[in-house]
Specification:
Helix content is 9%, strand content 43%. The protein is mainly beta.
Length: 338
């Protein structure tokens, strides 16, 4: 028989246990439009309809600070491309595949689309599949390209894996292309970590590019082209030890400093070009691949995207995962691959 005192203590213990959640616990709400997840560190949404791929715009919430990403989405996927002009094929190209240069949007470097459409804006609907792991939540999604330049086939696959580990203020991701065409320098264009909406720097105070340094927000008050400044091009520029691009958030109403929102490419030399320029918003485009590929081959890159208190903290997390180009996950677990 249990004494009254012990009964009270036991009851209190049961209440506490019932109210506690383990580090690996998360809540997931799935609708026709999106998958929304929440754990102790983060909230995020993966869209099924509309503007798709990656993590939905301003849905990534850092519960430690209350800040969200400041753009149009994180790890957002576009076309399969290669260097060279499409001018000779303009009359035969799907209008969505035409790549115009000599402007503040694309700069002066000629490039052409191999396959489209731009997934984020034109796919319209994807079917992301949730993965419920013991200490993580994951999502996989894919898209088969359905338009192509003259002389090219349609049908390459884009595949994306997202993993949200318990206890982390960041997620890991990977984008992979299984190609049906050959190219001397095929690449995939993505937004990484993502663009920054702002009004004269009200949502961020500075940007960190590991291949350049720290740049004040004031550099982005006026528009400039992607190849005018803060551009990284493999071969021309020294490959950095770590490939990190981040912006330091701040509250647009109070000016209060927030965390850094970073996107890290875990194998630096997979990046062929990366832009950081102003076009009404700060545009953070990254192109990876850019090397010869045969039909039937694939190429990929792996990333860490999320919130950090300092650049040193970014470096520590980067070094933990460095050297990988792929990510796989199922209900038994996840792992980065080379």
């Amino acid at each position: 028989m249990i004494s009254n005192g012990r009964t009270v203590l036991l009851a209190i213990g049961l209440v506490l246990c019932a109210g506690q959640s383990r580090a690996g616990d998360y809540e997931v709400d799935e609708s026709d439009d999106e998958i929304r997840l929440s754990n102790r560190q983060l909230e995020a949404a993966i869209r099924k309809k509309g503007y798709v791929t990656g993590v939905a715009a301003q849905s990534l919430l850092d519960k430690q600070t209350g800040f969200r990403d400041a753009g149009f989405g994180l790890d957002i996927a576009d076309w399969i491309m290669e260097p060279g002009s499409d001018a000779a094929d303009r009359d035969r190209l799907d209008p969505e595949l035409i790549y115009r240069v000599g402007n503040e949007y694309h700069g002066k470097t000629a490039k052409r689309t191999i396959e489209g459409p731009q997934i984020c804006t034109q796919a319209k609907q994807l079917s992301p599949r949730p993965i419920r792991g013991r200490d993580f939540f994951g999502v996989t999604q894919e898209f088969q390209y359905r338009t192509a330049a003259p002389g090219k086939k349609t049908g390459s696959y884009w595949r994306q894996t997202l993993v949200f580990p318990a206890g982390a203020r960041y997620f890991l991701s990977s984008d992979r292309v299984d190609a049906v065409n050959a190219s001397d320098a095929m690449f995939l264009r993505i937004d990484l970590p993502g663009h920054i909406k702002h009004n004269r720097g009200d949502t961020f105070s500075e940007i960190y590019l590991s291949y350049h340094g720290i740049i004040p927000a004031s550099e982005f008050f006026e528009n400039f082209g992607p190849d005018e400044k803060f551009n990284y091009t493999r071969g021309r520029d020294k490959t950095p030890e770590r490939f990190i691009r981040a912006y330091h958030l701040r509250d647009p109403n109070t000016g209060q400093a927030g965390p850094w929102l970073a996107g890290m490419t875990l194998q630096p030399d997979v990046v062929s070009e990366a832009w950081c320029h102003q076009r009404g918003y700060v545009c953070l485009i990254e192109e990876f691949g850019g090397r010869p590929i045969k039909a039937g081959e694939s190429f990929s890159a792996a990333f860490v995207v999320g919130f950090f208190d300092s650049i040193d903290q970014m470096h520590a997390v980067y070094d933990k995962y460095a050297g990988h180009t792929g990510l796989i996950a199922d209900a038994d677990g996840w792992k980065l691959t080379r």
